[in-house]
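Crash report, auto-generated. Payload:
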Amino acid sequence: MLHEPAVELGKDHSIPQKTKLGIIMFLVYLIIYAGFVFIGTIYPKALGAKVIGAQNLAFIYGMGLILLAAVMGLVYNYFCTKFENKWNKGA
Amino acid sequence: MIYEISPTAITIFLFFVLTVLGLSFYFARKTKSASGYYAAGGQIHWAVNGIAFAGDYLSAASFLGICGMIAFFGYDGFLYSIGYLAGWVVALFLVAEPMKRLGKYTFADALDSKFDSRGIKLTAAISTLVVSIFYLIPQMVGAGAIVTTLLGLPHYVGVLMVGSVVILIVATAGMTSTTYVQFIKGGLLIVFSSILVFLVLNKGLDKSPSDEYHKFITLDATVTDGKVMAVSDAEYKILGQQNDKDLVFVKLEKNGVFSWWKISSRDGSPVLEEALSVVTMKDGIKLYNGEPKASKKFYQVGHINKIIVDGKEVERTGPVGPFEYIKNIESSEITRFTKKAFVHEGEKVTLYYQNITSGEDIMKPGLYYKLDKGSNFWSRLDFISLMLALFLGTSALPHILIRYYTVPSQRAARKSTIVAIVVIGFFYILTLYMGTGAMINGCLDVENSNMSAPLLAKTFGITLFSIISAIAFATILGTVSGLIVAASGAVAHDLMDKYMKVKMTEHGKVTAGRFAAVGVGIIAIILGIIFEKQNVNFLVGLAFAIAASANLPAILMLLFWKKTTSKGISWGIIVGMVASLVIILFSPTLYEIYGLPPDQAWIPLQNPGIISIPLGFITLVIVSLMTKKKTV
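Recovered output after restart:
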């Protein structure tokens, strides 16, 4: 017996495009996140270096990762909505 | 002195709890079906669900644990904020919409959608139970801490209270009430945390946190052959000395009260610096700074030793902006209090001695997770392990995954995840300010890092403290409700209904879920009492590691690798879960709980993810390849 979702969902023809975009955006964020972990592990002193406006790299990178997640989320939603509108027209 | 009962606090607290209960009973009347109980009928608006996601996620770990860890260890606590939020990226880009497409009520439904395998049903249900229970422990510990602070009651009473209230909520209403409780609580948490951060920035940095703050004494000492022979104040008598590696502590007595001091050096001359002490005497009596707890001599601490603004030393900065605040912290020196425990002449002594730390060290990783000074292979591996588990854990948490079934469409699932990222991200930025605010404003309880944020609020007045504490308590109520719904779903829906095929009506399924909720709640209460002294954030990190090791390989490989088989999924879950549990059971932290020396732990890792997550993936791939023809 296969399970059904809690509510009926319409057919979505934009899944391949959305999946591809999701994987690309995930990999971009993963690389940037891994960069933070790499610096912390291999060059921990570098995280204390002043970079922008007398703020150190740890602060800028950490805050940057948080803000980047939100920005990438909004960009992802924009394109996914576009894909859905294009591929599901008349469906 | 730290925890005093206030009628205002009790009134506000009761108001919050009763409101939450009222909401639950209101929605209880609407919950008649299994879909209503487990998935709120799939009709929650994406914006409401997004804030409810934040409510679910910003648990005791985020509000109490992260702020407490930052207050005690600086930037290392903020690593959790970064990792927790990064985990949502995985949830949004890879998991949100497919989970919505595949699932019905539980995480096991989604995993089993292609196979109809009893093995998947069983292992996914067990994994859901294990992760939920590990996640429940810190929530219960946090609840105990809040009730101790707010109502002056023992820790176990707090755990019992939150356990009972939540069991009542979940056993009556299910996912609909949990969603609305989380929505309200998530919103309030953001608003009042913002107010608290505004007040911290408005106060700025001040060498004297408050008029009541304890004035620490320093005594000149005469030391001969490493032994303290005399001190500058003749009223003090030297009672003993304890050498502990590079540290030397001295026990003094004045007016019949003993105190502990640490030998330090000032301008090349030896001095004694006052420390806080908790001593369990041979007869079992516990003394705080040499006196019974009721004497209220065990004060709150945390202050700035030196404030440097634009190269000049100042007494205070006045109001500052968010960037200026961090810049000033970095250029200043802060007195932290470091724990040291030893046995002296048959007495168990725990000291919290002054540890002047540069702002530069506080604002980068290294005070908790050793990466630079004092680091070794294992400490660096622990750091990588933590960051890996946080990144991969979020999208494998059952109580987060089930929230995707409460919205009507995939688009709504995606949008609600983005709302969650924005709201949670904003909150995590606030944690850095709340944590460092607690560190420098003389409000820390050295025995309990978890209460740092509420105690910071207390420095700005009892009303704010009461509201913040009540929200924190509601935070726990909401998160625990979500976890118990997830766990009860695993028992009643996955195990009883799908695995054991027990014949039940719709009403019977809801009843089974409610009984399961009671059982899980009781287990959580017991564990919450046992783990009282642990930082809640650290404990949640372990839950993330188990989820990432057991569940994430199954979710990702099911979605993105066509050769995945049902047996591969089942074995991946088992190996990931067991590996992470074994590493945790033999880790230094658990040794501490067993009463054994942590440095004798079999596995020197605090966080299991670096080993158990790859193991989960590898097992799934190997077993899938081995069983491909038989099962597909």
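Post-recovery validation: The radius of gyration of chain A is 19 Å.
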